[in-house]
C-alpha cells in the first residue's frame, strides 16, 4: 500500500538492514507516531536537497546564512566525525567535508558539503545501507574538479536515476 499523499515516491528495499529481511525485499512504509514525525516524517527530492545545500553554502551575512553556518561549526573536535549541530565534519584527502546521513527503513541518504569550494553532493538510495562512501568520493572528486575549473559544482543522485552534475555560477545558484 502506498503512503497516502505520496503515491509517486520510490519504494524502499532492505539492504544492510533490517537484518530479518532478505536484501532486496521491499520494505513496508513507516507509520510514525506524532512523537517520531521529525525523525522520518519528511519526504524530499534531490532538487529540494540541492536547494538546501546551496543555502548552506551561501555566505552572504544574512541571518539565515549566519544560523546555518553556526550549525556547521565544530563543537566536539575529533579525528573523524567531529560534530556540529546536526552535522559531522571530516578531513578527507586534504578537503574539509561537512555532511549528514539519513537512514530509515528501505532508504538512505547523504548530503555532503565542501564549503571551501562551494561544492555539494546529494545521494538518495532506495535501500538501507551503512556505506555512504559514494557520496564522499563524489564530493572529493568534485572538489578537485572545482579547484581545476574554478567554479562551484552541484550534483544529485536519486533512487537509481543518473547523477545530475552541472556547474552553477554564483549568479544562478538556486535560492
Summarize the structure.
This protein has 175 residues and is α+β, with helices and mostly antiparallel strands. The chain has four helices and seven strands. The chain has a seven-stranded mixed sheet with strand order 1-2-3-4-5-6-7, with helices on both faces.
Commentary on this structure:
- It is a single chain.
- The chain is of the alpha+beta class and 175 residues long.
- It has four helices and seven strands.
- A seven-stranded mixed beta sheet has the order 1-2-3-4-5-6-7, sandwiched between helices.
- The N and C termini lie far apart (35 Å).
Provide the residue-averaged pLDDT. 77
- Strand order of the main beta sheet, please? 1-2-3-4-5-6-7
Number of helices: 4
Assembly context of the chains: single chain
Largest sheet: 7 strands, mixed
Please count the beta strands (DSSP E, at least 2 residues each). 7
Strand content: 15-25%
Identify low-pLDDT runs: 157-175
**Principal-axes shape call:** globular
Distance between the termini: 35 Å
Portion of residues within helices: 10-25%
Helix/strand class: alpha+beta
Radius of gyration: 17 Å
- Order of secondary-structure elements: HHHEEEEEHEE
What attributes does this structure have?
25% helix; single chain; seven-stranded mixed beta sheet; alpha+beta; globular
What's the SSE blueprint?
Layout: H1 37-40, H2 46-57, H3 63-72, E1 82-83, E2 88-92, E3 95-104, E4 107-114, E5 119-125, H4 133-149, E6 153-158, E7 164-167
Parallel strand pairs: 5-6
Antiparallel strand pairs: 1-2, 2-3, 3-4, 4-5, 6-7
Amino acid at each position: 500500500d502506498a503512503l497516502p499523499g505520496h503515491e509517486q515516491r520510490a519504494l524502499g528495499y532492505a539492504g544492510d538492514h533490517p537484518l530479518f529481511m532478505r536484501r532486496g525485499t521491499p520494505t513496508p512504509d513507516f507509520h510514525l507516531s506524532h512523537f517520531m514525525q521529525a525523525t522520518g516524517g519528511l519526504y524530499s527530492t534531490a532538487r529540494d536537497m540541492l536547494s538546501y545545500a546551496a543555502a548552506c553554502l551561501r555566505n552572504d551575512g544574512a541571518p539565515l546564512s549566519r544560523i546555518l553556518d553556526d550549525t556547521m561549526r565544530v563543537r566536539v573536535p575529533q579525528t573523524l566525525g567531529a560534530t556540529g549541530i546536526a552535522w559531522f565534519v571530516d578531513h578527507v584527502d586534504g578537503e574539509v567535508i561537512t555532511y549528514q546521513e539519513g537512514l530509515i527503513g528501505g532508504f538512505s541518504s547523504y548530503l555532503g558539503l565542501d564549503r571551501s569550494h562551494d561544492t555539494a553532493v546529494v545521494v538518495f538510495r532506495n535501500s538501507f545501507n551503512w556505506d555512504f562512501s559514494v557520496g564522499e568520493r563524489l564530493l572529493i572528486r568534485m572538489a578537485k574538479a572545482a579547484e581545476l575549473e574554478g567554479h562551484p559544482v552541484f550534483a544529485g543522485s536519486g533512487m537509481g536515476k543518473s547523477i545530475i552534475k552541472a556547474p552553477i555560477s554564483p549568479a544562478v545558484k538556486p535560492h
